[in-house]
Each structure stands twice: as structure tokens, then as C-alpha cells.
Predict the 3D structure of the following.
Amino acid sequence: MNITENLKQVLNELPEGVRLVAVSKFHPNKAIEEAYRAGQRVFGESKVQEMTAKHESLPKDIEWHFIGHLQTNKIKYIVPYVALIHGIDSYKLLAEVDKQAGKVGRTVNCLLQLHIAREETKFGFSFDECREMLASGEWKLFQNIRICGLMGMATNTDNAEQIKTEFCSLRNFFREVKDKWFSESEAFKELSMGMSHDYREAIATGSTLIRVGSKIFGDRNY
Ligand SMILES: *Cc1c(COP(=O)(O)O)cnc(C)c1O
């Protein structure tokens, strides 16, 4: 596996305005260091303990993105340093991030995760749940979080049309939410979608943040 080459290949495909989150979960520090030496600064992790250990031992100018399912009792470990939490999938979680972020005096960047895939197992709000949550208005009182956009995962399939349809539905929902609730917000601009097998479709449908792991670092050993 040549991490530097793989990374450059992906970066070369990125149009302006699209950023790469290099998903380094389950890979050792030395893999991250190689990507770092090649210029990559944004890394994604899905386990709190693993990300925190890596944050402590690796260069401080790395932007750590949390892309996994976040448990409320673990928020406190990441709020001091996390650059973006991609997977906010309930009002309760948002409220808890706000509370914990307040304790450390930070404003934490968050994305709302939408369930767009056919699989039952993937986390996220349905479009209607998200509309309801936003319509309640309670989130507007939070002072320690910043909602920067939306995140979603397409169905794990080879059917490119299916994937595109799902990404389009999220992009359209992004526009709806932006117009209705965030037209005045400069921060609300991120659409996190696309992984190793579907980032090209994601870019074609308006992604601003792709989350690519195995294509850069190779297969993970779970
Ligand atoms: C693991 C993971 C990725 C990266 O997946 P690859 O197929 O290795 O690119 C992207 N997003 C999320 C939410 C993940 O958990």
C-alpha cells in the first residue's frame, strides 16, 4: 500500500471547494504520519478513545473529525480538541455537545446526520425528524455549538444510480434547510458525503467533504 500515492490520486480528483477527510480509523500512527508528511492535515476517526490517543501523540496542527456514532457519555473526551463532529443524530446529542463544549469554553462545529440509505442499520435523522427538530427552534438557544451543515451515507451498493439518487436527496434537503434556517449563516455550508466507493458520485452531486479511508490506507483489520 502506498499511502502517499493513493492520497495524491484522490486529491487530484478534488474540484475546488471539496475537502478530503482522510479516514484513518483502525490504522496506526505511522500510517497517519505518512499522509501527514504528504501534506494531509484533516483526519477522520470513529472511536473516541482511538481518536483521543492519536490526538495526544500526533502533531497538533491536525484537524480531527469525528465521523462515528457518538455516545453522550464520551463527548467530554473530544470537545476540547475536535474540529468537526459529523454524526449528530438527535436533539439530545446536540444538547449534550453544547453543554460539554460550554464547560471547556469552546464552540464546537457539528453536522446533522441524515439517514438516506436503504439499510436500517445506519444512524441519522429522517428528513422529517430533522425538520421537526429544526422547527422546534430550541437549538437556537445553544451557544457552544455551530451547525455547519449535513452529513449522510449512501446505501452500500454497486448501483451508481441508487447512490446518486440518495446523494441528490440529501443535497436537495441541504438547500431546503439552508434556505429555511441558515440563510444568514456563513458557517452552514458543508455537505459531508462520499466514501471510498462512492466519492465520485458524491462530488458530482455537490459534496464539500468526502470521507475516504480504505482507498488511501488500505483495508482495515477489525
Ligand atoms: C469508515 C467510514 C468512512 C470511510 O470508509 P471507506 O470505505 O474506508 O472509505 C467514511 N464515513 C464513515 C461514517 C465511516 O464510518
In short: The chain has a mean pLDDT of 96. The chain has nine helices and eight strands.
